[in-house]
Amino acid sequence: MKNSSSYKITFALALLFVTYTTEAQLISDEHISKNFNCIDCNLKSTTLNSHKTLRINFHFISRSDGTGNFGESTNIFGNTSSENGYWISDLLINQANNYLANNVEMTQQLSYSPIPVEEIKYSYKLNGVFFHKNDSFYECYFAPNSLTNNIGCAINIFIFAGRSGNGAAYYDACWIGGIESSYSDYIANSNTWHLTRRANILNHEIGHILSLDHPKRSPGGLKSTIGGTQYTDNCNDTPTFMELINDGYSDPYQWCNGEYSNNIMDYSCQLRAFTPCQINQVHSYIECCFTSYLYGNYQNSHVQINNFSENMAYIAEIVEIPTGASITIPNSKKLYIDAQELIINGEFFVPLGSTFEFTPYGL
Hints:
Layout: E1 8-11, E2 16-17, E3 29-31, E4 52-62, H1 85-101, E5 122-133, E6 155-159, E7 167-169, E8 173-176, H2 179-189, H3 193-196, H4 198-209, H5 241-246, H6 276-289, E9 302-304, E10 312-315, E11 318-321, E12 326-328, E13 334-338, E14 341-344, E15 347-349, E16 355-358
Parallel strand pairs: 1-14, 2-15, 3-7, 4-5, 4-6, 6-8, 9-11, 10-13, 11-14, 12-15, 13-16
Antiparallel strand pairs: 7-8
């Protein structure tokens, strides 16, 4: 990785016209458990973790006629609006980062083992927003590999209109449902809380991607029960079901009052709290297996821009428009570049209404 002071943009023999733009309720989920066993997650101090920023792509799948989800210039009801897919992406990622920047105390505490509140020290950077008109995937409720962008460099988040409250995570992608009902509640109540609560689910599903498991449920959401199967995660500071029962709790699965849990990996109306072990496990997993997803780290040293018809994002140390190439950003589309150096040796056109976003790493 190059030093952040080495960024530059090189224009050579290029015809260039550029406009720059700089810039909860969870019902059930399923995920592929990584079962990441971090030996020192319960031991090391979270203060030793450096802050980490992960790249995020948002995807909106609509019907083939463009209806049924947020679009590039429309709200979820198909009306031209500033409350479009870009708007909701910014709203979700900003609120998710706000939650990550403000850890809270665990509501479920064992009387003999208090859980401290420590800094989480990771966040997200919006890398790109993508729109897909596809009847086949409109109600698929998974993260289609064929629609993902920047594989191995960014987490891909698919936003669905239906399946309120549901979500699921896979290796480096996840989906979240219910955005239509949330937007309807926002319109009816003039309160963005109905939308930003989805940021809790976003953090929960990305928690799965970053190796975290449910503290007292199976990967598919089955409950631990007295005399039945006991489900646990890899952290000794997330109370198990039987630990809570033996400490006097009558119903550790309450949804939003009484004995409910606000842990990020539980199921409740408020998913906020990270324990020190969960924080350490996330950081250990990123350092072990997810470094190429970090803003400032590059899986590719050099890529060339090719012609494209929809929004496109490139991630590499050097991104180049080669000699002889003529690249035009299609009307109303966006080109995102995450690089330390952008080299333009060919022709590059950004027509009125299209957008080119490039912030050299380190700025």
